[in-house]
Design a protein that fits this description.
Mean pLDDT: 94
Strand content: 5-15%
Radius of gyration: 21 Å
Strand order of the largest sheet: 2-10-9-8-7-3-4
CATH topology of the largest domain: Aspartate Aminotransferase, domain 2
CATH superfamily of the largest domain: Type I PLP-dependent aspartate aminotransferase-like (Major domain)
CATH architecture of the largest domain: 3-Layer(aba) Sandwich
């Protein structure tokens, strides 16, 4: 194996959010559950070393010894590497001038809300969906979260088109955040679904913000379609992307905002300002998109195998847990409702008794997620096997 994803990397004492231990979990009221045997599977990063090309680039920047003010405009390969990536991977044409650097997808979406919406106006989201969307709409930007609940057909989720159209038709609902691929449900939206979303948003004057941060993490038989490929009218579209998830560099804050429409981009830029990446972020983006595609292919193969193992294990040893193989992302969305337990009881069996940290479903689906758990399978197979066996032991008949 050229890349050893089975390697167990000790991330304790490395400032890791996931492996930070009791001080971190005290923030979430879970410090009593943490010990040296805890297996954390709740944070969307990976316990794999990032690609060798990125590691080498980090060494070059570190060894230079000067870390002054940095701009990605000083590195012509930065924007070009993104342009080339979208053409090569997705057959999608973007222009370098459409690209703005951001320190993260969440901050970019926050800025879009604060720039284009008035306080109290509605932002449409589709639960189950990344929980922080709801939090930042309601708390951080003082807007109104408008839920368009996805239709759950035995674990396969689709849009409720009638409800979506009705929510978009409300004049005060002025933005839709599309999670594509969808976290935590693992859907990769089809060209037809994306075109329909774009059409409904356009007809109703709704700003469409597409968070495509997970777009490179796909099953082998699945293709991601960027929103810019699904429609020819870009006048109301903001696309957020980046290397954070794909290449396991979230701590470097490498995200980008792609806005084709000149007027939309200039209004956004006027509020967003010129964000300055660290020199490490600039080097990482170039190394990821230009020199790490082979590593990404190997990673996706490993994640596919992890998902196949996990889903197969659950079907065999926890048949009452409903789970489907996701089309994209590295999440499993686990439905424990057949056990007839409360969310608190499910939480106790997994977090305290099994000593495995997942994410409770209500954070991603406030109305229907009580008996769900989100599991990130981004860890070496030996640890994944231990975690699943521990959980299964707590749900034996």
């Amino acid at each position: 194996m050229k890349y050893n994803f089975d390697e167990i990397v000790n991330r304790h004492d490395t400032y890791s959010m996931k492996w930070g231990g009791a001080p971190l979990f005290k923030m979430f009221g879970m410090e009593a559950h943490w010990n040296d045997e805890t297996i954390p599977m709740m944070v969307a990063d990976m316990d794999f070393k990032c690609p060798p090309a990125i590691q080498a680039a980090m060494h070059r920047v570190a060894d230079f010894g000067i870390y002054g003010y940095t701009t990605h405009f000083a590195e012509p390969r930065y924007n070009q590497s993104i342009v080339d990536w979208y053409k090569r991977r997705y057959d999608t044409d973007i222009k370098p001038e459409w690209i703005l650097y951001s320190d993260g997808s969440v901050s970019a979406i926050n800025c879009a809300m604060n720039t284009f919406l008035n306080p109290g106006e509605g932002v449409i989201i589709t639960p189950p969906v990344y929980g922080h969307f709801n939090d930042m709409i309601d708390g951080e930007t003082c807007h109104k979260p408008v839920h368009c609940q996805l239709i759950n057909d035995d674990g396969y989720y689709t849009m409720d088109w009638a409800d979506f159209e009705a929510k978009c038709a409300v004049p005060t609902n002025r933005m839709f955040i599309l999670c594509s691929p969808a976290n935590p449900i693992g859907r990769v939206w089809t060209a037809e679904e994306l075109a329909r979303v774009a059409d409904i948003c356009k007809r109703n004057h709704v700003l469409l913000v597409a968070d495509e941060i997970h777009s490179d993490i796909l099953r082998r038989d699945v293709k991601h379609i960027p929103i810019l490929k699904a429609t020819e009218d870009y006048s109301n579209i903001i696309l957020v992307t980046g290397i954070n998830k794909s290449f396991n560099v979230a701590g470097l804050h490498c995200a980008n905002v792609i806005i084709p429409d000149d007027n939309l981009r200039e209004v956004f830029r006027s509020q967003f300002g010129m964000k300055m990446p660290t020199p490490f972020a600039v080097a990482a983006v170039v190394a990821a998109y230009n020199d790490s595609e082979e590593w990404l292919e190997a990673l996706n193969d490993y994640l596919d195998a992890n998902i196949d193992y996990a889903v197969g294990f659950i079907w065999e040893h926890m048949p009452n847990v409903r789970v489907r193989k996701p089309e994209g992302t590295y999440m499993l969305w686990l439905d424990f409702s057949a056990y007839g337990l409360t969310g608190a009881e499910i939480h106790k069996r997994i977090y305290e008794d099994a000593n495995v940290m997942l994410q409770d479903g209500r954070g991603h689906d406030p109305s229907q997620g009580e008996c769900f758990q989100r599991m990130c399978i981004t860890l070496p197979r030996p640890q994944l096997e231990i975690a699943l066996k521990r959980i299964a032991e707590q749900f034996r008949p």
